[in-house]
Amino acid sequence: MTKDLIIKHIDSLKNHTAINYSIKTKTEAFTEKLFYTLFDTNANLYKSMDQLEILFKEISIIACKKPEELCDSIWEKFMGTLPDVLDKLKQDANFILENDPASNDLQEIYLAYPGFYAIAIYRLSHELYLLDMPLFSRLMSEYAHRITGTDIHAGAQIDSPFFIDHATGIVIGETTHIDKYVKIYQGVTLGALSVSKSMKNNKRHPTVEKSVCIYANATILGGETVIGKNSIVGGNSWVTRSIPENSIVLNTTTTEVKIKEKEDR
User: Fold this and answer.
1) Distance between CA atoms of 170 and 187, rounded to whole angstroms?
2) What pLDDT, on the 0 to 100 scale, is given for residue 264?
3) Are residues 181 and 137 in the same domain?
């Protein structure tokens, strides 16, 4: 097959979709610029907001499926949410500082904690989700997923303060509800018990009440599953039913330790 025929064949296969890949790279640039604007002391807010508006509207041309006049007004609505989002993120950062003995100061958390970055991008993408910008919000959350290894759907409802430690491997589904003062460690999944397209508008993911701690690699599934407040879910636990308040959930698998026979050298 000649080069011309190959190109024509590829072109014919591409024509059934209308994907503008620039939206992905523009969203990543927007996400980084937004984080910088909110947290860098030296950021010129007026200049940065103007730059963000330009990027936002370039993305909206592709991502917004509403009439043009409605798309144009979304930036102002989104910008209006930023003070409240920043206030929540300050609460999150302080909660991390209070609870992680490895943390030294807020600067370290803002600059070096992947869990905080994942929470920050979640809170910002969540506002876009509420403004009915699903593709924009999903691209933001997937960028954070790639950077941090933490997959938080923009539709999840997560109160502040919230603490993610180590971050890698965490999955939080779209209809998850998480109350204040919850701590989650690496590898935790808050997911659906079963998957079917017909369940799209149903609550498919768990509810985690106030002051719960979920340790590494625990899996909690189901829209009717509620983890009662002040409970602890131990590492590697598998939970598919509700847990009462003040409970401790343990994985009962035992680990044996044996002493090796001494070898002569």
Assistant:
1) 5
2) 62
3) no
Is the model's pLDDT at 24 over the cut of 90? yes
Q: Is 75:57 a contact under the CB 8 Å cutoff?
A: yes
3-state secondary structure of 206: coil
Residue 118 CB-density burial (10 A; 0-12 exposed, 13-18 middle, 19+ buried):
buried
Quote the percentage of the chain above a pLDDT of 90.
77
- The mean pLDDT value for 206-220 works out to 98
Distance of CA 22 to the CA centre of its chain: 22
| 198 domain residue, yes or no | yes
Closest CA to 249 of 215, 223, 224: 215
Chain-centroid distance of CA 200 in Å reads 19
Could you tell me if 203 and 91 lie in one domain?
A: no
Cα separations (Å) of 3 from 9, 10, 12, 124? 10, 11, 14, 45
CATH of residue 41:
1.10.3130.10
Quick: pLDDT tens for 26-78.
Answer: 999 999 999 999 999 999 999 999 999 999 999 998 888 888 778 889 999 99
For the chain, how many structural domains are there in total? Answer: 2
Cα 17 from chain centre: 28
CB atoms within 10 A of CB 166: 19
- Beta-bridge mates of residue 171: 151, 189
Whether 120 is covered by a domain: the verdict is: yes
Verify that 140 and 176 share a domain, yes or no. no
Co-location of 147 and 226 in the same domain: no
Between 5 and 100, the higher pLDDT residue: 100
